[in-house]
Amino acid sequence: MMKSISALGVFLVTIALTGITAHAAFSAVDKVISVPGADQAQLSEKVKTWAGMYGRSNNVDDKTGVVVVDGEVSYPSPPVDRIQYTILFEMKNKIEGNKVAVTFDKVMLKSPVNYVSSDANERMESKTSAVENGKDTAAADKVLSRITGNLEAFLLGKSDTASTLFKCADCAVLSTSEGELGEHMKIHSGGESPPAK
Asked: Which DSSP string do the residues of 47-98 spell out, in sequence order?
C-alpha cells in the first residue's frame, strides 16, 4: 500500500515539474515550420492569408508576431461512428524570423445541435466538452496534424503535397476529405453543397 502511495506521489511530482497539462495530449501536433528565404513580414502575411482561407476567425498581434486562428474540423471517423462530431481548436502561430511555431489550445469535442442519440433515440442540444479519452485524443491529434501539414505545405509553396482540407461554405467547418465534408453537409437543411477548398 505504501509503495503504491509513494509511486503515485512520484508521478504527481513529475507531472508538476514537467508542466504537463491537459494541453499535453496534443503536443504531437506542436511543430516549428522553417521557411527558407522568408522574412518575418512575408511569413506573417502568408500565415494571415492561410488563416483567412481555413479559419473561422483569426486575430493578429503584430507586436508579438502571433496569429491566432479559431477553427472547427470534422471528427475523423466513418459515418457510422462519430462523424457528426467536430473538434474545436485555437491554433497559435508564433512567427519569429523565418520560422512559425504552431501550437494548439482550447481543443474541445463538440456535438451538433439536435444530435439524435442512437442509443436512446432522442434529440439533444449541442454540447462542447474537453477531449479526455484516448480515442478522442488520437482523433484530435490526427486532424490537427493534417491542419499543420496543410499550413506547412502552403508556407513552403508545395500545394501538390499539401494535406488536403475542405471548408464548408455554409458554416466554415473543415474536413480532411470530400467524403467527410459530404457527411457534414447532411446537417444543413439545404442538402449537400459543393465543397469549398
From this structure: HHHHHHHH-SEEEEETTTTEEEEEEEEE--S-TTTTTT-EEEEEEEEEEETT
Q: Whole-angstrom Cα distance, residue 73 to residue 167?
A: 9
**Angstrom distance (rounded) from CA 67 to CA 62:** 8
The 10s digit of each residue's pLDDT in 8-43 is: 343 333 333 333 333 444 444 589 999 999 999 999
Note the residue count of the chain.
197
The answer to whether 109 and 130 have CB atoms below 8 angstroms apart is yes
User: Considering the entire predicted model, what is its pTM?
Assistant: 0.74
Contact, 139 vs 159, CB < 8 A? no
Cα separation, 176 vs 88, in Å, equals 14
Are the CB atoms for 111 and 84 separated by under 8 Å? yes
Count Cβ atoms below 10 Å from residue 20 Cβ, excluding itself.
Answer: 12
